[in-house]
Amino acid sequence: MLELRPSCECCDKDLPPQAVDALICSFECTFCADCAENVLGGVCPNCDGNFAPRPIRPAAKLEKYPASTKRVLKAEGCGPRKAA
User: Fold this and answer.
1) Is the pLDDT reported for residue 84 higher than 60?
2) What domains appear along the chain, each with residue ranges and CATH number?
3) How far is 10 from 37, CA to CA, in rounded Å?
4) How many Å apart are CA 77 and CA 84, to the nearest integer?
5) pLDDT at 32 over 70
6) Given 37, 50, 59, 72, which residue has the most CB atoms within 10 angstroms?
7) pTM (two decimals)
8) Strands (E), 1-84
């Protein structure tokens, strides 16, 4: 089950469960659409994967399966992954 992380890992913008601008990679790294497109160029800096819109969990299911409250913020800053 998706964690539905509460914020962008890049800018720390709040991304509540119903946010339509939340994007995730296959590892559930979570970014706002602005950072994913304009800062990261559509590539996850953690895994080099692409992004997809994060699904919205229906409110009735949020009661039984709540979203995560753990915020993740990249301490080293946010930017495109450097080539090896």
Assistant:
1) no
2) 1-62 (3.30.40)
3) 12
4) 18
5) yes
6) 72
7) 0.88
8) 22-24, 30-32, 52-53
